[in-house]
């Protein structure tokens, strides 16, 4: 997916109110998808709560949503600046019944995917309001039902797989897996680690939204990282893109006999959260370790045994 260039969004932010309004009205009237993507991203980077610190992943997701919604609106006779009061609900309904087109996936779009598309279209209308083109909010009352299956159930943590797979990883790939599975880093954070970030028993992590945290490293992770020379002049320890890292890790999972259990790097991060919770029984400490802003998020990263309190209630 291609995002608009930063200078394009900056040029929109710097327009006068009248010029920005004209640009937005014209784009909406002609269903100009890319112009509306630009306006949405200009709003997100120049006027939203996080502003320029909005993550690239969020911008890509919202751009995808706009590219989906605008053609749908055109096909169904929805006037973008004057949508009907039920049009938001109509779009949500068709998303919920749309077949999934992901590789190897069956059924309809997941609840998380539907929520992501709706979040993007809501951002589009906030952007149009910011541009002075309209005041309508067609998704204000559109209900997006949550997924009844908890994420920890749909995508549980790897457990025994980690040690099995490590035996089939070359040193740099093993270090990457350990950063996710033992140090709890997001894959995007792990791929950004540089030699200068390693300081004794801790690593400085540059996380989502520009947040920085210091994460303790166990002896196994320290040993894996200690022998890695940088791969770039800036000291980067990993030179892979996300897709390249995924290809290599998927191959290692297959070699270890766990090809069918590969669920992405996030399940490795959940491995660290689950093990730390079992050791501490403290969601707050686990959340700080993983870099979560809310303990509610942390709960989705921990697989708690069904009989976790069996011993405590035995003598009630």
Automatic annotation (TrEMBL):
GO biological process, one term: DNA recombination
Pfam families linked: Phage_int_SAM_1, Phage_integrase
Tyr recombinase domain span: 152-315
Recorded superkingdom: Bacteria
Keywords associated with the record: DNA integration, DNA recombination, DNA-binding
InterPro entries: DNA_brk_join_enz, Integrase-like_cat_sf, Integrase_catalytic, Integrase_recombinase_N, Integrase_SAM-like_N, Tyrosine_recombinase_XerCD
Keyword Protein biosynthesis set for record: no
GO molecular function: DNA binding
This protein's record includes keyword Ion transport: no
Protein name per the record: Phage integrase
